[in-house]
Design brief:
By secondary structure, this protein is of the alpha/beta class. Among the domains are: about 110 residues, Glutamyl-tRNA Synthetase, Domain 3 (Glutamyl-tRNA Synthetase, domain 3, Alpha-Beta Complex), CATH 3.90.800; about 220 residues, Ribosomal Protein L25, Chain P. About 25% of the residues lie in helices and about 20% in strands. It has 15 helices and 27 strands. The structure holds adenosine-5'-triphosphate (ATP) and magnesium ion. Adenosine-5'-triphosphate (ATP) binds next to helix 2 and strand 8. Adenosine-5'-triphosphate binds next to helix 2 and strand 8.
Length: about 575
């Protein structure tokens, strides 16, 4: 190892205003002390479901930190649990990581290392550090003891090395039924840390594996496979969530006892299999999970919503999966902003969902062009314009950023306005359109309501107005002030659209909290999806799928990535312009 002074600072050391959380602090120290010259991390999801918003935190840390320090991050599929895993999820995970803006150095699978894990286990047995146990899973549980009582040694614990070796080879050869034998680490049945009470290393499971097929009747346990995968990939900092804190002693035990770097034959095997890596001694560091209010972040429960048909799939915009949020119109930038703002700590907490929504708003405010749409239409007729009147008005695409350019918006005698922008009996402080009242039509001028037409049921079906010609742009009265400005879409030019209005999936902040005797399923917000028919200005209808817009005064919307077509537009509401939940809970 070089001395600290001999170590050149890595080229991409973050600026002084870079995040200074405890993990980055450790990494800086490891670089400046010369402990490591490059930073290597991994993101290790289990391909048994799609990723959710909680995983975004791990992704942003694993990939983000590697990038900040000019290192790299592997995407490692932790596929040690065959049967629950599915290639569909593998593809989904890859997609989602890329969507968030990250690229992996190598794509690995824990199953790439099955042979090395197996041979390393043989070494452990030879070194007297592991033994084959014949206790059944129930018996093992019984022998394990409790938090307050030590466990008992298995009667098979003192089996000879030769016998364990032979039995383990026969386990691998598929000679024994599922669950009849286990390879266990010989550590300490009296340890205060339950994870250290002779944990299982291998179990027998005759299940077809998505990558290795029927080659293996035995599968390594997570704790064993995970840390050794880190060593094999040369991972320097193995970042994980707090629930693994109690597993860290076991992580270190396996790393030390297996001591992979001292087995050149295993490295050679890896190299021949196409996995060239430099070993490292990884350090596990834990951070707190991301929990969001009004959300569930459990793959099992998300899968239940899908399997029971309570949502329209993993990418239903109500779901807090990354693909759900994507389809809903949330941005990767907004999600990354949330993670950055929250920082990293070891403190568990529930973050208000409004903070995520605000980050998404902030990102979309800067990045989404403006358009006009009407989602609850009421007809407005301008009686002092001729029937055939038609104009093309120039609108800027972004009020704060000229680089977005401008577009032409058709204007004519008949328009759609939002029903709620007209009130026959206006409440106090109502500054929009009312009988005999005036309002500014965005980009057009001031109209005055001169007549209200009603349908047979008494509801307002049309409002008739006159347009003050002096108030039009370029005219002397263009600056005349009226209190309200409303948006509109030309009825003759507007394109009918399906608008899906999404809202939070649950109607209580902590759906998982079952202390009131209600299951989380009962807290599903029935209004989380509402479909309405609206009208779009032509330039909005022409959007490519996944184009996001601010529909003026309504919120941020996205052209549905699967269902939208220019002739039959479908837009999803990502988020309203303001937080509508704050006043409800206040
Ligand atoms: P679940 O409990 O939903 O099944 P998991 O932790 O089992 O999630 P994995 O696929 O094993 O899911 O997770 C991959 C990585 O993502 C792990 O390193 C895990 O610590 C991290 N992770 C999972 N959930 C969160 C979360 N809510 N916040 C931060 N990191 C998370
Ligand atoms: Mg897990």
């Amino acid at each position: 190892m070089s001395t600290p002074t001999a170590v050149a600072k890595p080229a991409a050391t973050p600026e002084n205003d870079a995040p200074r959380d405890f993990i980055r602090q450790i990494i800086r120290e490891d670089l400046s002390s010369g402990k490591h010259t490059a930073i290597r991390t991994r993101f290790p999801p289990e391909p048994n479901g799609y990723l959710h918003v909680g995983h975004a935190k791990a992704i942003c840390l694993d990939f983000g930190i590697a990038r900040e320090f000019a290192g790299w991050c592997n995407l490692r599929l932790d596929d040690t649990n065959p049967g629950k895993e599915d290639p569909e999820f593998v593809e989904g995970i890859k997609d989602d990581v890329r969507w968030l803006g990250y690229e992996w150095h190598d794509l690995r699978h824990a199953s790439d290392y099955f042979e090395v894990f197996y041979r390393a286990a043989l070494k452990l047995i030879q070194d007297g550090q592991a033994y084959v146990d014949d206790l059944s899973p129930e018996e093992m549980r019984e022998y394990r003891g409790t938090l307050t009582e030590p466990g008992r040694n298995s009667p098979y614990r003192d089996r000879s090395v030769e016998e364990s070796l032979s039995l383990f080879r026969r386990m691998r050869a598929g000679e024994f039924p599922d669950g009849s034998k286990t390879l266990r680490a010989r550590i300490d049945m009296a340890s205060g840390n339950m994870n250290m009470r002779d944990p299982a290393i291998y179990r027998i499971r005759t299940v077809t594996h998505q990558n290795t097929g029927d080659e293996w009747p035995i599968y390594p346990m997570y704790d064993y496979a995970h840390c050794l995968s880190d060593v094999l990939e040369g991972i320097t900092h193995s970042l994980c969530t707090l629930e693994f804190e109690d597993h860290r002693p076991l992580y270190d035990w396996f790393v030390d006892k297996v001591d992979l770097p001292s087995h050149p034959e295993l490295w050679e095997h890896m190299r021949q299999a196409g996995f060239h890596t430099e070993p490292a001694k990884p350090r596990q560091i834990e951070f707190s999970r991301l929990n969001l209010s009004y959300c569930i972040t459990s793959k099992r429960k998300l899968a239940q919503l899908v399997n029971e048909g309570l949502v329209d799939g993993w990418d239903d915009p109500r779901m807090n999966t990354l693909r759900g949020l994507r389809r809903r119109g949330f941005t990767p930038g907004g999600i990354r902003l949330l993670i950055e703002r929250l920082g990293v700590s070891k403190q568990n907490s529930v973050i208000d969902y409004a903070i995520l929504e605000n980050c998404v708003r902030e990102d979309l405010d800067a990045s989404a062009p403006r358009r006009m749409a009407v989602i609850d239409p009421l007809r407005l007729v301008i009686t002092n314009l001729p029937d055939a009147h038609e104009e093309s008005l120039s609108f800027s695409n972004h009020p704060k950023d000229e680089s977005f350019g401008s577009r032409q918006v058709p204007f004519s005698r008949e328009l759609w306005i939002e029903r709620e922008d007209f009130a026959e009996v206006p409440p106090k402080g109502f500054h929009r359109l009312k009988p005999e009242g005036e309002v500014r039509l965005r980009g057009v001028g001031i109209v005055k309501c001169v007549e209200v037409i009603k349908a047979a049921d008494g509801s307002v079906s049309e409002v008739r107005c006159t347009l003050d010609p002096e108030s039009r742009s370029g005219m002397p009265g263009a600056d005349r002030k009226v209190k309200g400005t409303i948006h509109w879409v030309s009825a003759r030019h507007g394109v009918a659209a399906e608008i899906r209005l999404y809202d939070r999936q649950f109607n209580v902040p902590t759906p998982d909290d079952e202390s009131d005797g209600k299951s989380w399923i009962e807290h599903i917000n029935p209004d989380a999806k509402r479909i309405v028919r609206g009208w779009l200005e032509p330039a909005a209808a022409a959007a490519a799928p996944e184009q996001r817009y601010q529909f003026e005064r309504l919120g941020y919307f996205v052209a549905d990535r699967l269902d939208h077509r220019a002739e039959v537009p479908v837009f999803n509401r990502a988020v309203t312009l303001r937080d509508t939940w704050a006043k409800q809970s206040a």
